[in-house]
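User: Sequence in, structure out. Go.
Assistant: Echoing your sequence, followed by the structure tokens.
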Amino acid sequence: MHIWNYTSTDGGVLSKHLESMMFFSEVCQFRWNQRKIGKLVFGHNDGSISVVSPGQKAFKHYLRPESVDDPDDEDPVTSLEWDPLSADYLLVSNAHHGMRLIDTDSMTVIMSFKLPSSAIKIHTLAWVPSAPGVFVTGGKNCD
């Protein structure tokens, strides 16, 4: 991951984020935490997440969906969103196995959300700012 600044005079690249160089599964999503400066999460093609926070141990490739039996099967992370009211709660959706609400402080799954049909694929999700605890999803067959 590179950090860019469009106002920089040297082409815009400020630095490389070294923690992101050491993953064994490709990064397909990432999000900065708006409440805890410097904390970010990476979603990987194998379905796991990695959480990096300044001054703390990095959690790399944690919480791969339990329903993925074969280590070679991939269930990429399709969307990540931090809870706007919490520095630690994160919504994660995977291509094949639903969504999870994760506490990134303890690295535990608080709740798993099962999709009503295997035909439904979530491509995006968002917290509703005016309704604490409520979120919306969108994607294929999400009528």
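User: And one key feature?
Assistant: The mean pLDDT is 80.
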